[in-house]
Write a structure and sequence with these properties.
The protein is of the alpha+beta class. The protein contains 19 helices and 23 strands. The strands form five sheets. It has an eight-stranded mixed β-sheet. Strands 9-10-13-11-12 form a five-stranded mixed β-sheet, with helices on both faces. A five-stranded mixed β-sheet has the order 17-16-18-19-23, with helices on both faces. The longest helix is centred in the middle third of the chain and has 34 residues, at about 370-400.
């Protein structure tokens, strides 16, 4: 990594304002106080270390989850400046951790060329939302340490030793009075740091979880950068170009892009600015798409693959089956969009387009066989798109001739206000019948499904329109599918999948979630998809109110509670529910549909990259990776019906 030659001392640390409101309104700074917000604390500290790597000064970062959910992040960067800040009259290091928006990442005369994270907010917010924080710095020949409690200094920066090394170590324990949970999820953190390592070529990131014995650990170091990233994403897919197309342009405006086509039908493009995941895209994505469409059409015309009478290929045709990762470094990025993750710098469009034009055109000329194979897939996608259009029109025409455009088996609710309505997609006619009788007709609709559903991971859109299992779902949701999906038109605020608690039910849930992820992704991103949690067991005894248990742990807990009342296991009748159809309407309402007593699991997508890999693995064509997954995870299976 080329070093950014610039002074980095106390004068580069700018102070904008104090720490007011952070503890009172944490959601303003980290999004939420759920487990997602808890993980955000770790990301902010690691982002600071990654910024040192982007500047060319850090090679190694280690994240440790210590027993008791204490986080330790250690890097070998320059170390936070320890000299006295001219404005605050305290050390620059203490300023960074106690003043909101204090950091070396603002304006042209900063200590960083580019940076990610919250641009200076991170360290002080983590400190403010932690029960305690301890920062150890190696710099300028010394070892320095400072300590805080709930954001307030209890030990100012003090020299505690000598060292010829540099770096920063931050240990913190999140405040349990602020966060809903303090339990970090290792897999979530591991996925995030793997992504960071892919995006920062040559950076070694290690994570270790000491809460388990033996400890979980992983090490990520990718010299191939985004090329390796795309190969990782497509591990479970059949590739058209075995070697990813790789663009790596250094300079004032660094651009790194990797492109690989597979035989799948989905489009997966991930974009980053200064290592920030721009999930809403922006000008860098716009420039990439424009170039991709132009270069492939120009090449197809030049080589007579597209005849004079043929229309140009659309962008959607050219992007079918593509996996691409785009990473740009912008000195002063401007973010837009609902979540502030959409790049708005207008100059980026043309710069990215010019670079991709040059590199991609050269690749196609030098690799005619691969170019031809990709274009054959694009032309096939164009034909399928036309078939899908005709199928869509047939479905619309058919629906317009019927008395209603809603599926016949849908028992709709009386309310038409989407935010207060919910639809249960229920496995089987029997359970559907019970659900219809047990529901609250004002706001609950029921859509029974039956038979084997289509696996959309292996099908194009033209096979989906008119499909007798999926078309009712499309019509019931009411917002279209694919590129035509419009979240503002959904008919229900909650789309709830209710399936049996067995292997077949799990398969139904997976098929529906695959469909929503591939063709109605905004439904998941907007938090509209839920999984119903029917009980696994019913405990009954004469003179005792029935007890429903939703997990094996819940069952054990209930038996312990009964034992404390002098009721033994053999005095209690236990029923293991195999299917929803075993419950009468009253029981189904009481356990699974009553908003006052039910358990719903919201389907979220914190990591679209991991979600894509899992759906490809479980639902795709490649058998060997799926077999490996089953072998590795079989030991975790519970309640398997034989």
């Amino acid at each position: 990594m080329e070093k950014y030659e610039h002074e980095y001392n106390a004068e580069q640390i700018q102070v904008l304002e104090g720490l007011e409101h952070v503890r009172k309104r944490p959601g303003m700074y980290i999004g939420s106080v759920s487990v997602r917000g808890l993980h955000h604390l770790v990301y902010e500290i690691v982002d600071n270390a990654v910024d040192e790597a982007l500047a060319g000064y850090c090679k190694n970062i280690k994240i440790t989850i210590e027993p008791g959910n204490i986080i330790c992040v250690e890097d070998d960067g320059r170390g936070i400046p320890v000299d006295i800040h001219p404005k605050t009259k305290i050390s620059a290091a203490e300023t960074v951790y106690t003043k909101l928006n204090a950091g070396g990442k603002f304006g042209g005369d900063s200590g960083y060329k580019v940076s990610g994270g919250l641009h200076g907010v991170g360290a002080s917010v983590v400190n403010a939302l932690s029960d305690w924080t301890e920062v150890t710095i190696q710099r300028d020949g010394g070892i320095y340490q400072m300590k805080f409690e709930k954001g307030k200094t209890i030990q100012s920066l003090t020299k505690i030793g000598d060292s010829d090394k540099t770096g920063t170590k931050v240990r913190f324990y999140a405040d349990g009075s602020i966060f809903e949970t303090l339990n970090y999820e290792y897999d979530v953190l591991e996925n995030r740091f793997r992504e960071m390592a892919f995006l920062t070529k040559g950076l070694n990131i290690e994570i270790e979880d000491l809460r388990e014995d033996p400890p979980k650990k992983a090490k990520f170091l990718y010299e191939g950068g985004l090329k390796t990233f795309v190969e990782y994403l497509n591990k479970n897919k059949e590739k058209i170009n075995p070697e990813p197309i790789y663009i790596d342009k250094e300079g004032e405006f660094p651009i790194e892009i990797a492109i690989q086509y597979t035989t799948s039908y989905s489009e997966n493009i991930y974009t980053f600015v200064n290592n920030i995941n721009t999930i809403e895209g922006g000008t860098h994505l716009e420039g990439f798409k424009r170039s991709l469409t132009k270069v492939f059409n120009d090449y197809a015309r030049e080589k007579n693959i597209l005849k004079e009478k043929d229309a140009n290929l659309l962008g959607d045709d050219i992007r079918e089956g593509i996996t691409a990762v785009i990473s740009v470094k912008v000195k002063e990025p401007q973010f837009e969009g609902q979540t502030k993750t959409k790049l708005g710098n207008s100059e980026v469009t043309g710069i990215v387009q010019t670079v991709v034009n040059e590199y991609l055109s050269a690749f196609l000329e030098e690799n005619p066989n691969i170019a031809k194979a990709i274009l054959e897939k694009c032309i096939s996608a164009s034909r399928a798109r036309e078939a899908a259009r005709k199928a869509r029109e047939l479905v619309r025409k058919k629906n317009s001739l019927e008395t209603a455009t809603l599926p016949g088996k849908l028992a709709d609710c009386s309310s038409k206000i989407a935010d207060e309505c919910e639809v249960y997609i229920v496995e089987g006619d029997s359970a559907g019948g019970s659900a219809k009788q047990g529901r609250d007709r004002k706001f609950q609709a029921i859509l029974p499904l039956w038979g084997k559903m289509l696996n959309v991971e292996k099908a194009r859109a033209d096979k989906i329109y008119g499909n007798d299992k999926l078309n009712p779902v499309i019509l019931a949701v009411g917002a279209g599918i694919g590129n035509e999906f419009d979240i503002t038109k959904i008919r229900y605020g909650k789309v709830i999948i209710m399936a049996d608690a067995d292997v077949d039910g799990a398969h139904i849930r997976t098929l529906l979630l695959t469909f929503f992820f591939r063709y109605m992704r905004p439904l998941i991103e907007n938090g509209n998809v839920y999984l119903a949690q029917p009980p696994l067991y019913k405990l009954s005894k004469k003179g005792m109110e029935d007890i429903y248990c939703y997990t094996d742990e819940d069952l054990d807990k209930r038996f312990k509670e009964l034992a404390e009342k002098g009721i033994s296991r053999d005095q209690v009748g236990i029923q293991r529910y195999k299917g929803l159809g075993e419950m009468n309407p009253e029981q189904l309402w009481e356990t699974t549909m009553n908003p006052e007593t039910r358990i719903l699991v919201k389907v979220t997508m914190d990591d679209a990259i991991s979600a894509d890999r899992v759906f490809s693995l479980l639902m795709g064509d490649e058998v060997n990776p799926r077999r490996e997954f089953i072998e590795q995870n079989a030991k975790y299976v519970k309640n398997l019906d034989i």
